[in-house]
Amino acid sequence: MDDPAKPALKRVFIETYGCQMNVYDSERMRDVLAPLGYAVAPKPDDADLVILNTCHIREKATEKVYSEIGRLRVHKERRAGEGKTTTIAIAGCVAQAEGEEILRRAPAVDLVVGPQAYHRLPELIARAARKTGDRLAADFTAQGKFDALPARAPDGVTAFLSVQEGCDKFCTFCVVPYTRGAEFSRPAADVLAEAQALVDRGVREITLLGQNVNAYHSEGGDGLAGLLERLARIPELARLRYMTSHPLEVTQDLISLHGAEPKLMPFLHLPVQSGSDRILKAMNRKHDVVHYHDIVARLRRARPDIALSTDFIVGFPGESDQDFEATMELAREVGFASAFSFKYSPRPGTPAALMHGQVGDSVKSERLARLQELLGGQQRAFNAGKIGLSLPVLVTGKGRVAGQKHGRTPYLQSVHFADETARDGDIVSLRIKAASQNSLTGERAAQEAA
Ligand code: 5AD
Ligand code: SF4
User: Fold this and answer.
1) Per-residue pLDDT tens for 95-116?
2) S-S: 203 plus which of 112, 116, 198, 318, CB 3.0-4.6 Å?
3) CB of 171 closer than 6 angstroms to any ligand 2 atom
4) Same domain for 395 and 318
5) What's the structural domain count of the chain?
6) Cβ proximity of 376 and 437 under 8 Å
7) d(CA 171, ligand 2 centre) in Å
8) Which of 75, 106, 141 is the last residue of a domain?
9) Each residue of 64-95: b (16+ CB within 10 Å) or e?
10) Reported confidence tier of residue 209, pLDDT bands at 50, 70, 90
11) Does any domain span residue 33?
């Protein structure tokens, strides 16, 4: 007989697009749904609930949503023929930006939930089942979300922890201020409690997340550096990272902490977008090239081995050959360990979409190819530079091949190594034997105490 106290087992499949914030949010949605009896399904084919956690940052990302809904409709119809219901939910930034339109354009979609309303998923699912009431939740403040979400259930030794959401910077190309709302920081006590809970469940490395993570400020006025210092005092927590930072708020105390706090990993993702002052101004980035170089110089003084990563946009409206060469120059001068680079994609409702001087796609493609060649070479050189060194590697799981393990260096490089004994969460000393663009191969040197 069924236990009436125990909900029947249902299956949820969550597809995540876009940034780490979405990865974090998908985990939180999974946690919200677990008490309702939802287990995670590996594929959408036989899931009772399918959630697409979407990204609106570039046109391509948005288009994917509509083509995926088309595929899901087929599953839904097939399952309906078998007498089963399938609920299709659209979450994330496309949901926030185009919720009404999705419901109009895609009748297969049962509900739409924006990034600030995930705690309301159970209520929305119930309404969708009854086919009554509102099918759209697009709240615009992050406070309710964090207060109402349940405790975390991490599934590894590394975890993301969202500390800040939203953006007040209004870069002229970017939809984030419109989809994620104004900058909001979580109270430090909540962050510390969530971190402790993660550590209690075996997490050794935490990456603090925020669209502008270094704009974080606690109720007491502490900035990100203060928060990191407090987190570093959790004894079993071995490593701390944070992303994504804006150059405007890289404070000297944060830079100094990179030199002073061994748990803070020597890696920083610091988007620059362009190496031309003229384009930075048109992008409303609020800083110039000299300022970026100055941050890099101070970081390297504090922590000489720090690895830098960045984002670039090529083909922003008005970008001339000369502006693009300035971007190449900046990349050559800084030397990045890794980088993401994108063709500018006009986004509806953003100022840059209406600017004169839109750049043609073939020019964008040419510039992107040149920049990526340079950045790919820098990444290969950075990885090759580790050959022969012994690095402390956090063991994160099984490798691709039987008997192999996978781990992470302080510089966020993936390492594969043969070892049966290393346990997930150990920090082992590995001698790096080989390197490719995306990963390293290591061998065990000596066990470290962590
Ligand atoms: N077109 C291309 N790239 C963009 N990004 C943000 N908006 C756009 C756009 N409209 C890139 C930026 C940002 C990263 C997350 O995505 O480089 O740092
Ligand atoms: Fe977008 Fe600029 Fe805010 Fe980053 S800082 S989220 S690029 S508006």
Assistant:
1) 999 999 999 999 999 999 999 9
2) 198
3) yes
4) no
5) 4
6) yes
7) 5
8) 141
9) bbeebbeebbebbeebeeeeeebbbbbbbbbb
10) very high
11) yes
Q: Rounded to whole angstroms, what are the CA distances from 13 to 50, 145, 157?
A: 5, 21, 23
CA 57 / ligand 1 centre spacing (Å)? 6
Which pLDDT band, with edges at 50, 70 and 90, does 2 fall under?
A: very low
The answer, yes or no, to whether any atom of ligand 1 lies below 6 A from the CB of 303, is: no
Please indicate, yes or no, if residue 146 is contained in any of the structural domains: no
Domain CATH code at residue 334: 3.30.750.200
Closest C-alpha among 33, 46, 42 to residue 7: 33
* Phi-psi category of residue 426: left, alpha or beta, with phi > 0 → left and psi -120 to 50 → alpha: beta
Closest CA relative to residue 408, chosen from 92, 83, 229, 157: 157
For ligand 1, mutation pick of 58, 268, 310, 316 (most atoms within 8 Å of CB)? 58
The CB of 274 under 6 Å from ligand 1? The reply is no
Co-location of 234 and 169 in the same domain: yes
Phi and psi at residue 115, to the nearest 5°? -60, -20
CATH code of residue 116: 3.40.50.12160
Task: Choose the residue to mutate in 23, 57, 209 for probing ligand 1, maximizing ligand atoms within 8 Å of C-beta.
Answer: 57
Which of the four pLDDT bands, split at 50, 70 and 90, describes residue 149? Answer: low
Contact 290, 319 (CB under 8 A): no
What amino acid occupies position 225? A
Q: Quick check: is 281 in a domain?
A: no
In a domain, 15, yes or no: yes
Residue 233 neighbours by CB under 8 Å, 6+ apart:
none
CB 343 near ligand 2, within 6 Å: no
- Our answer on whether the CB atom of 174 is closer than 6 Å to any ligand 1 atom is yes
**In this structure, are residues 37 and 53 in contact, taking their beta carbons and an 8 Å threshold?**
no
- State the pLDDT confidence band at 420, using cuts at 50, 70 and 90: confident
Which residue's C-alpha comes closest to atom 9 of ligand 1? Answer: 345
| Kind plus residue range of the DSSP H or E element containing 394 | strand 390-398
Domain assignment of residue 245, given as a range: 151-265
The answer, yes or no, to whether any atom of ligand 1 lies below 6 A from the CB of 345, is yes
Alpha carbon of 292 to ligand 1 centroid (Å): 18
